[in-house]
Amino acid sequence: MIVLGSTSEVAQAFVEKALQEGEKFEKIYLFTSSKETTERFARHIDVKFLQQSEVIEIDLMKEIDYTTFDHVSSHILFCAVGYLGDGTEEGLYDNRNTEKIININYSKLIPVMNYFAQKFESRRSGTIIGLSSVAGDRGRQSNFIYGSAKAAFTAYLSGLRNYLFEKKVHVLTVKPGFMATKMTEGLPLNPKLTATPKQAAACIYKAFKKQKNVAYVLPVWSIIMMIIRNIPEFIFKKLKL
Fold first, then answer.
1. Fewer CB under 10 Å: which end of the chain, C or N?
2. Quick one: which H or E segment has residue 195?
3. Dist CA 236 CA 241 (whole Å)
4. Which H or E element spans position 130?
5. DSSP characters over 39-106
6. pLDDT given at position 108
7. Reduced to 3 states, what is the DSSP secondary structure of residue 33?
8. Which ranges of the sequence are coiled-coil (predicted)?
9. pLDDT, tens digit, 9 for 90 and up, residues 115-165
10. At a CB cut-off of 8 Å and minimum separation 6, what does 13 contact?
11. Closest CA relative to residue 80, chosen from 33, 147, 24, 148
């Protein structure tokens, strides 16, 4: 398995879920911008599951030397890369914040995704799982910079799924709603609409095994976002969402 964004609690929970379910991996490649943190997780799965892994440092804000991971190959790619950024009014007009949100969630991520997608295509097998967001379903004033990047990522995954279908490669788009993770720590989240990383991992693994195309972590979010998408614009623009 290839894991992009392996410091993510959801990514780590998915790895553990897959191993608990008996999935066999010759090696798990853990791509990370925080090597020390990821090495702790690598030791954990080695002790708990006797699972061999390799930690590979990658920083999407810097130039990437793809030759350093030419050797990486697997039948599952799990992408949990994400950066929420500063969603305040000050953050909105901070270009460094904006650039980082766009770069990490989309523009710098897509070349990496394409690099591995080509490997999957040439082998004509495998599954690519991408964590997008319900924030990409419709732009809302509270997080539309982040939402726009996730909307672009959702569109990319949709197109990639369409392109790779005849190449026998499946692409799963996951749209978590509220998640109880480090990224959302301190935010006033409704507990009834918030999933834990373990809940998310169980949902994603089930969707992976069923070869679903799009999965909302909590089913209620598909209903919520359907309503939000269908609010007429002349009403929607007046709402505080």
1. C
2. strand 194-195
3. 9
4. strand 127-131
5. HHHHHHHHHHH---EEEEE--TTS---GGGGTT---SEEEE--------SHHHHT-HHHHHHHHIIII
6. 97
7. coil
8. none
9. 999 999 999 999 999 999 999 999 999 889 999 999 999 999 999 999 999
10. 197, 198, 200, 201
11. 33
